[in-house]
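Reviewers of the previous submission asked for a worked example of the structure-prediction workflow described in the proposal, so we include one complete record here. The input consisted solely of the amino acid sequence. No template or homolog information was supplied to the procedure at any stage.
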Amino acid sequence: MRSKTTFVIPVVQPPDRIPARETWDVKNIVVIDNTTLGSWETICAERGWAHVTFHRNIGVAAAWNLGAQWSFFDGSSFVAFVSSSVWWEHGLSSFAAVIKEGADSRGLLTELAFHASAWNVRVFEQIGWFDESPYPAYNEDTDWLRRLELSGLHVPPERAETVMKPPNVMPKWGPSATCEDAVSLKSGAVNVDFAKNERWYRAKWGGPKHDEQYEKPYGLWVPLSYAPTMRDW
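From that input alone, the workflow returned the following structure tokens.
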């Protein structure tokens, strides 16, 4: 029998701006509150969700890292990263059920990409945390997938030759869900310098997405096994 999943949901707007919260019908949720006022505290207390805030936007990658670390300490086998923009037609419990039945030893991908994905917490031991350099967001997911490919944990057939690894594709699910795009990065809710983060990725990997030249990232990258389990906030 599979162990529990912790659902990590970073938010950048107060609850009244995120109607999708009404579809979050599971208990094991950690809301990373990136609003300046910590405005999710009341609703989290009412619904039994964990609430973490620093009264500032710590960024997407840092929020995901914090959620993954929370999952370690909470004894979860899987951590699911869920965007607050996603409206779940059959509730977030539908995702929980698919993870329980359909995830493999690595996790579960979805057609919503990083708006909804689940990972075995042990994956972090192999490839480390998300890189927090592209603050507040954008390209941290691309960097993560690049490292995932190089590790051999998830290598789609169309990418196998590029990273010199055999295909090893993770299971994928097409949820009945809609990304409302109300609080997405490109909606303007968060100020992101896309060009700067693109330059960062090219410098790190020697080229843009799908045309990387390096098999090891340029600069310091510390794997989880050499890093402290909980960062100093």
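Residues 5-225 form a domain with the Spore Coat Polysaccharide Biosynthesis Protein SpsA; Chain A fold (CATH 3.90.550). We consider this example representative of the routine output the project will generate in years two and three.
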